[in-house]
Amino acid sequence: MSIYISRFQLEKNLKKKIFILITCSLIIFIARNTNRIYKEVNQYNYDLINKPFYSVEENYFKIDNFMNEIKKNYDNCKNVSSPDCNIYNGIKIKEKNNYFFLKKK
Question: Do residue 65 and residue 50 come from a single domain?
Fold first, then answer.
């Protein structure tokens, strides 16, 4: 493939067009990201220099905590060998190859 392509001579105009296309793409990319950051600073009072992070509250993790609770209950139940380990809070749990499949009952 590269031998086939190397047979062709690139025109001077083509090189110039490619350079202009790449330059325009970079300018548009940088301009859009700058605009996005400017809007974030204004809308959310985001201080990029002094506080380059945002706070995450505990209630943002309620699904993750619920999933951990389901898994912990399932593991504890399996250790006791209870027959009702597959259902927790109306959710049916099935384990296969260390993956947990959950289905609302």
Answer: no
